[in-house]
Amino acid sequence: MSGIVKTPQPPYYAVIFTSQRTDGDKGYGKMAEKMEELASQQKGFLGVESARDNELGITVSYWDSLEAIKNWKENSAHKVAQEKGKAEWYTNYSVRIAKVERAYSFET
User: Which residue numbers delimit the ABM domain (predicted)?
Assistant: First the structure.
């Protein structure tokens, strides 16, 4: 997915994943694509936005409920990716979950 996600009217939830990578791909790119595809098939998934420069990556996924977020975190394939992330792909990361109560946008 690319671009800005069109989300429904609030409330909904955002999972903000901020990370710093280790050097080299080590299979990260392929797994990231697989996880995005798998997440998009999960009940409650609303979309994802992601950006990365040389040092910092930020991925925000949007969900309709805390239950949907919990189910995604516990997904078996996602758990494998989480463990590989800790062992191989990230020097550090942070996950924040926020309730979106208001949203607006501009488009030409």
Answer: 28-84
